[in-house]
Every structure is written in C-alpha cells, then in structure tokens.
Amino acid sequence: QVQLVESGGGLVQAGGSLRLSCVVSERTLSNYSMAWFRQAPGKERAFVATIRWSGRTVYSDSVRGRFTISRDNARNAVYLQMDNLKPGDTSVYYCAAGRVAGPDPSYYDYWGQGTQVTVSS
Fold this sequence. Notes:
Elements: E1 4-7, E2 10-13, E3 18-24, E4 33-39, E5 46-51, E6 57-59, E7 67-72, E8 77-82, E9 91-98, E10 110-111, E11 115-120
Parallel strand pairs: 2-11
Antiparallel strand pairs: 1-3, 3-8, 4-5, 4-9, 5-6, 7-8, 9-10, 9-11
C-alpha cells in the first residue's frame, strides 16, 4: 500500500508564500504521476497541478504562473511552491499518486490525508 503524507500548510496573508511537501512511501516514485488537488468547504475536489514521471507539468488556469509543482524521486517527495497566494486559494490541499496523469481525481489511486492552507485578506 502506497502512503502519502502532506505537510507545510498553514495560515498566510494574501501575497505570501507557502511550500507544501508530500512524502511517498513507495520506493519507485518515478513510476507514478503525482498531483495536487484542493477542496474548499462545500465544493468539489479541484485539480491544481500534476507532474509526470518525465517531469512534464500541467497547471490549472487559476494557479498557473503562481504555483510550481516539482518532484525529487531520490527523496520520494513532491512539492508545491505557492506564491502570491490569494484568499480564494484557501482549501485543504491533497497530494495524489497514480499511473495516469490528468485533472480528474479518478485517475489517481493513492491520496494523502490533506493539509490546510488558509489565506487571509
């Protein structure tokens, strides 16, 4: 069973930055596409960014140019650097791993427990 553990969430003012980390138990992280999703209260889980085993990245329109996803296969870790944060970015952020990359949550087989990000105005 692959386990994912997120960290790095917190409270930040608008315009600030946070860096989320996701450590994966799987020894061969390079076999997986990794992604970040987020879910605000009362809303569906929404795609944020994904990174393939090749390093190719895709972002949602709402975060492109502000967020950067990266991976370190040697450390079994994936990161989400979030800059110029806005109150609308407030959500629980989830890390996900799967064999297929894409914006649909159903593509991913394994999920972390989530980390709260709150952006104050």
